[in-house]
Write a structure and sequence with these properties.
The chain is α+β, with helices and mostly antiparallel strands. It has helices spanning 11-48, 52-118, 129-140, 174-185, and strands spanning 120-121, 146-156, 160-172, 191-200, 208-219. It has four helices and five strands; from the N terminus they run ααβαββαββ.
Length: 221
């Protein structure tokens, strides 16, 4: 649809507005025509004297100049605006993707934090990890199979205390390993097996030596 200012005005005012616009521009239009008239007449007179072949060449030249004008005045600005708009859209899409990634990371960390809190010993409460493990291992493999139990503890960032017990078991059967791991996972104390190494015993291929590290996390306050 062709743009026309009269389209946006009430019909009863169209004639008045259009008349005022023409009367306002009339002096400038007349002055421009008067100034350009001699040059236009000279150009028309010069064109009429050209041969048909020269007129064809002038038409071709005029078409080329028109295309160059449209290319530089219309196409290039429109293309630049389009590329700028596409870049802005792409930047917004990248921000949305980054935001979604941050939301997924937040949700993952939230779940991990909730899981860690469930497996954290309440503050000011000693989990007695050494005694619990000693009793559990004695019931599952027997005191003779326990090579050593070495407790340690240290503070970690965030106001937590980490309780660690390194255990060595000697010459235990595979069913005993399974029973021991199950017993450790079902304890009332929320412990985690952070390290597990199983080696075949040197003198008996049917038994194994096991090194494992049990850890409990507690709040310091």
């Amino acid at each position: 649809m062709q743009f026309d200012i009269r389209y946006f005005l009430p019909r009863e005012r169209v004639a008045t507005v259009w008349s005022r616009l023409r009367s306002t521009c009339a002096p400038y239009t007349a002055r421009a025509r008067k100034a350009l008239a001699p040059y236009w007449q000279q150009a028309a007179h010069w064109y009429e004297k050209r041969e048909p072949r020269e007129k064809v060449l002038l038409h071709v030249l005029g078409g080329i100049v028109t295309l160059l004008f449209i290319y530089n005045a219309v196409y290039l600005p429109a293309r630049g605006w389009r590329d700028n708009l596409a870049e802005r859209v792409a930047a917004q899409q990248r921000q949305v993707i980054h935001l979604r990634g941050m939301m997924r990371s937040y949700e993952r960390l939230r779940v991990e934090l909730a899981s860690t809190q469930k497996r954290t010993v309440p503050g000011d409460r000693d989990p007695a990890l050494f005694s619990v493990l000693e009793m559990t291992l004695t019931n599952s493999v027997g005191r003779a199979k326990i090579g050593s139990i070495t407790p340690s503890e240290h503070q970690v960032p965030g106001g937590f205390e980490q309780y660690i017990v390194d255990v060595k078991l000697n010459e235990i059967a595979l069913p005993q390993i399974v029973d021991t791991l199950y017993s450790l996972q079902t304890l009332n104390v929320p412990i985690t097996i952070s390290n597990l190494q199983i080696h075949q015993h040197a003198q008996d291929s049917h038994t194994f030596d096991v090194n494992l590290t049990c850890m409990a996390l507690g709040k310091t306050g």
